[in-house]
Amino acid sequence: MKKLRQYLSRFALLCALLALALPKVQAGSSAEATVGVDRFGADAIREFALKVNDRLDEKKVNVAIIARAGRPRSEMPAGISYTHVAFVVFEPVRAPDQSVFYTYAVYNLYQGGKGQEDHSYLKQDLTYDFVAGVAEPDVAVCVPTEALQARIVQVIRSPAYAALHIPNYNLLANPWVDRYDNCVSHTLKVCVAALYQTDDRARIYRDIRMYFRPTPVHLGAVKSIGSHFIAGLRHDDRDASGLQTATYDSLKAFLEQNGLVKESFVVKM
Amino acid sequence: MPGMDFINYPVERRNGYAGGVMKTSLKSISSLVIALGFGAAVLSAQSTAASTHASNAVTLSGAASQETAAAAADSAAGAVRVGSAALAVPVWMSGAAVTGSGAVIASAGSTVASAGAAQTKAAERLWDFSTSDPQQRPALNRQRSVPAPAKPAVVTPAVDPTPAEAARKL
C-alpha cells in the first residue's frame, strides 16, 4: 500500500514536471536550433549560395534534387543525413522591376509555422533561401537523367504539382500511405508522376508501394515516447513493420537503382 | 528496509532515508524529462522555411483548399499564387512563358491544357532547357541570385563650422 502510494505520488510529480517541461521543449525546438546566418554568418551563407549555384551551373545542371541538414547530424535519428529536400530548376525569373534574369529557382514543401506544424505549404524561393536553413555546412545534389529532368519540370509546371500535395504534414510521413506529406514524400511523388507521365494519384501510390523502399526509422524507447508529444509528427500512418519514411538517401537510392541518376555530389561550404 | 515502520524509524536515519528516496526519484524523474524532451527536440521542425529569407517568392497552395480556387483566378499557371512580396518569380508562373521554340510548356495529366493555353496569352520567347538548344543556354546571373552583401554603415563625422562662424555664435 505504501509502495503504491509512493509510486502514485512519483507519477503525479512526473506528470507535473512533464506538463511544465514539454511546452518549452516544443516551443524552443525549432527556435533554438541555430541555422544559416545565425550559425555561420551572413557572408558565409551568401558565399555558400553562390558556390552551390556555381557548381550547378558549371555542370550545366537544369533540374536537380537538393538536400540540406536543418539540424545538427548528431541530433538526427540513425540513417537520416538530411532533413529537407527540394527541386532546383535553372530558369528565367522575373524581378519586381520586371526585368528577367536566369537563376536557380527552388521548389519546396515547407512545414507550417508556429501553431500550424501539422500543415505544410508549397513555396518557390531561391538557392539562397535553401542555404539559409543549413545547420550543417553542406548541400547534397542528385541530378536525374536529362530525360527525367525534362519530365520533372513538366510536372512542376502543371497543376499536378499542387494536386499531389497533401497539406496534412507528418514529419515522418509513410510514403506508402496517401494520408500525409513531408518534403521528401512530395518530391518522390513528383518523380514518380514524371517517370510514368501520370497525375493519377492512386497509380502513383501503387507504384511507390511496389518499387520504393522507405528508410526505417528506429527511435529507441525514449525518443518514441517523446515523439508522441511533437506537433507535426503523426503515428496513424505507420507501417506494421514500424516507422518508415522517405529520406534523401532512400530517394537517391531509388533513382540510382532504376538508372535515373546522371550524377550526385555534395557541395561543401 | 522491507517491513520497517517508517514512523518508528530513528529520525536522523529517517531523514536520510526520506531524503535518499526523494533525491533518487527526483534525479530519475528529471533525467526522464530531459530525455523525453531531447527525444522531442531531436525530431521536430525539419522542413521549416529559413527565417532569414531575403527572397520570399511564391507560395503554391494546396489543391484541395479554397485558396486554390482563388489562386487559379489570379494566375495563369493554375494552382499557383504569386505573393505580393515576391522578389523573383519564375517567368512561367507569371503567365508570360512560352518556350524558345514557341511551344506551350507541356505538362503531365489531363487537366493541363487550360493552364498551357493561358500561358500563351502573354507570349515571351525565353530559353527553356526542355525545348531549347543547350548550346544557347544563357548565363547564370550570379549577383542577382543572392542578396547584395550587407554594407557596413558609413559614419560621417560631423563637420564643425569654421572658428570664425563658431565665434559669431558666441
Can you offer a commentary on this structure?
The complex is a heterodimer of chains A (269) and B (170). Chain A is an alpha+beta fold. Chain A has 10 helices and 8 strands. Chain A has helices at 2-32, 36-40, 42-58, 127-131, 146-156, 159-163, 183-196, 201-211, 220-227, 248-257, and strands spanning 63-68, 84-94, 100-111, 120-126, 138-144, 215-216, 244-245, 261-268. In chain A, helix 5 (146-156) crosses helix 7 and helix 7 crosses helix 8. The radius of gyration of chain A is 20 Å and the shape is globular. Chain A starts with a helix and ends with a strand. With 170 residues, chain B is mainly alpha-helical. The N and C termini of chain B lie far apart (93 Å). Chain B is elongated, with a radius of gyration of 34 Å. Residues 1-19, 52-56, 61-86 and 96-123 of chain B have low confidence and may be disordered. Classes of the chains: A alpha+beta (269), B mainly alpha (170). The interface between A and B is large, with 112 and 83 residues.
